[in-house]
Amino acid sequence: MYRIPFDRVNWITSSFLIGTALIALIGLPIYLFKFGIDWFQFGMFSFYLVATMMSITVGYHRLFSHLSFKAKWPVRLFTLVFGACAFENACLDWASDHRRHHKHVDHDEDPYDISKGFMWAHIGWLMFKLNPEPPMDNVNDLRKDKLVMWQYKYVHWIGLVVGLVIPSILGFAWNHFNGMNPWTGALGGFLIAGIARIVVAQHCTFFINSLCHTIGRQPYSSGHSARDSAVMAFLTFGEGYHNYHHEFQHDYRNGVKPWQWDPTKWTIWTLSKLGLVEGLRRVPDSKILLAEMREARLKAEKHLAELRDHGPGPAERASIAIHEMIERMTANYHELEKAVADRVHLSREVLNRWQDETRATMREITRMVSALPA
Ligand SMILES: [Zn+2]
Ligand SMILES: [Zn+2]
Fold this sequence. Notes:
It is a single chain. The chain is an all-alpha fold. The chain has two domains: 6-278, no CATH class; 285-371. It is built from 14 helices and two strands, in the order ααβαααααααααβααα. It has a two-stranded antiparallel sheet with strand order 1-2. Helix 2 crosses helix 4 (91-103), helix 3 (73-84) packs across helix 7 (146-177) and helix 13 runs antiparallel to helix 14 (348-371). The model has no long low-confidence stretch (mean pLDDT 93).
């Protein structure tokens, strides 16, 4: 049994997290069993869930924390209001924590440091205060935004009114005008679009700090714990391509490949076509490929180092072959590195060819290594 450090418990946050989870787990099934759910309640839940999650991913994260694009006031206002409904604190606090997470990832100053354990990164960092609260000296740019400061001041009131009171009123009104018990409707709005939606949105956000640093691949860098996973991208509105995101945090895309599931990226792009946001930041394809090639080389070198322990025989032959492949990869890497440094434009075809070659080489190396006797 772990000893719970009661003197360090953040009682308000802990009560909220546990209280809402208990209501969602116990109160909601009882309500659904007694009264069921109609399409209006379901529609309200869906709208609130998407609005809340998108406000966190588009607004709190990619806009305010990373400045990956510029937004006009309607987008800032919407994401600040519905971001408050996630009950994940004010945008200013969130962005400050998040910028420290990127700067000190996997180290002690990282607020949701995964090296302190899965549960710590998921929820423990909110429930306990291990270290004194660091100064919020990394969000001075955001302090100049009047809307951000307005939300900072009234965040809990905005969350309470828009996130809980309004769905209750809408549920009341819907049932009233449709000849049903209005109080049943109000309770439904409170429980389903209110509490249950908060719990789902919160844990989907927390997954970015826990699971996205635990499961998935590391195609761009193994220098930090962040990982790319399509499953996580689905659960987090596109934030699951977290390895890419930690490598290139100012890119407005997390799922950088056209086929990757990133509704947040699609929303930002659509808003730009509507003239509501602008200045979308993208990392050039050549730089992205350079990171992929660097990481592939590192992995190949790791395989080679492991083979050295095997001694002569098939392992020796494999290591000679892998050594040659690494030399070719290194030559390609330096050629691309020079092209990037000289800002030479490389066609899509050239980049694709290098990418295909890198991936084929890596597949070949994996095949050779796994074919060796243990
Ligand atoms: Zn992260
Ligand atoms: Zn981030």
